[in-house]
Amino acid sequence: MITLYGFPKTRALRISWLLEELGLSWQYQLVDFTQGEHRGDDYLGLNPAGKVPALKDGDLTLTESGAIALHLAQTHGQGRLLPPPGSTEAGVHLQWLFYIVTELEQPLWTMGKHRFALPKAQRRAEVLETARWEFAKALKEIDDRIPASGFLMGDQLTVADLFLAHTLNWAVNFDQPLYDNADAFRLRLCAREALQRAREREDAAQASA
After folding, report:
1. What kind and span of H or E run contains 193?
2. Are the CB atoms for 180 and 114 separated by under 8 Å?
3. Which residues of 169-206 are buried (b: 16+ CB within 10 A; e: fewer)?
4. Cα–Cα distance for residue pair 54/6, rounded to 1 Å
5. Among 174, 165, 183, 166, which Cα is nearest to 128's?
6. DSSP per residue over 61-123, as a string?
7. Angstrom distances, CA of residue 126 to CA of 31, 114, 117, 170
8. What is the pLDDT of residue 209?
9. Each residue of 107-156: pLDDT tens digit?
10. Of 208, 202, 207, which Cα lies nearest the Cα of 6?
11. Which of 10, 69, 120, 153 is the most exposed place for a label (fewest CB within 10 A)?
């Protein structure tokens, strides 16, 4: 059994989306941030950092959304959502994925930390302008490589597509402007039925808490 531990509007959504794209059987375990469950002993036993997502796949427990996504696609994808191992395309796909999580997402999370995530005494409003500049720079460097149709790797949907669309949604939520090309990609990917099902799973878990 696959169990995803998450909370709505976090990085857990990119994993629930991936699980739905893969058509796997899985369950969603809400880690209620509003009740401090991410700091409880039970959850800290899974992820000492107290962050989501975490994933249990049989006897394996994983944290870090990038590692979780690659594990799921490699183990359960049956050739879907990843280019062939060892291929040129696989190298390009990894390049996309690492750029997204280290360069594009990083300044957005800096904004989040200094708006709401860090203790108030540690938040610095002056950091926000630098983070906005960093995000705009990172997006500009890749915008002309985001395809006007299809996916990052051509006709095949991959993990990197989900991560890019999810990250661009974060940017919109943080009021960061997007180039037309990037925004069209975001809207195209976010219209997928698998994402709608993932959101419904999150909402149902929160509603029943």
Report:
1. helix 193-207
2. no
3. bbbeebebebeebbbebbebbbebebbeebbebbeebe
4. 7
5. 174
6. EEESHHHHHHHHHHHH-TT-BSPPTTSHHHHHHHHHHHHIIIIIHHHHHHHHIIIIIS-GGG-
7. 31, 9, 16, 20
8. 75
9. 999 999 999 999 999 999 999 999 999 999 999 999 999 999 999 999 99
10. 202
11. 120
**Residues 188, 201: Cα–Cα separation, whole Å:** 21
The predicted-structure confidence for 56-72, as pLDDT tens digits, reads as follows: 999 999 999 999 999 99
What is the torsion angle, in degrees rounded to the nearest 10, for the CA atoms of residue 174, residue 190, residue 26 and residue 158?
-100
Residue with tokens 């401090």, as numbered in its chain: 36
Is 21 a residue whose pLDDT tops 90?
Answer: yes
Take residue 177 and report the two structure tokens written for it: 């402007």
**Exposed e or buried b per residue across 3-19, where buried means at least 16 C-beta atoms within 10 angstroms of its C-beta:** ebbbbbebbbbbbbbbb
Residue 122 φ then ψ, to 5°: -100, -5
Give the number of other CB atoms < 10 A from CB of residue 105.
Answer: 24
The residues facing 62 across adjacent strands are 55
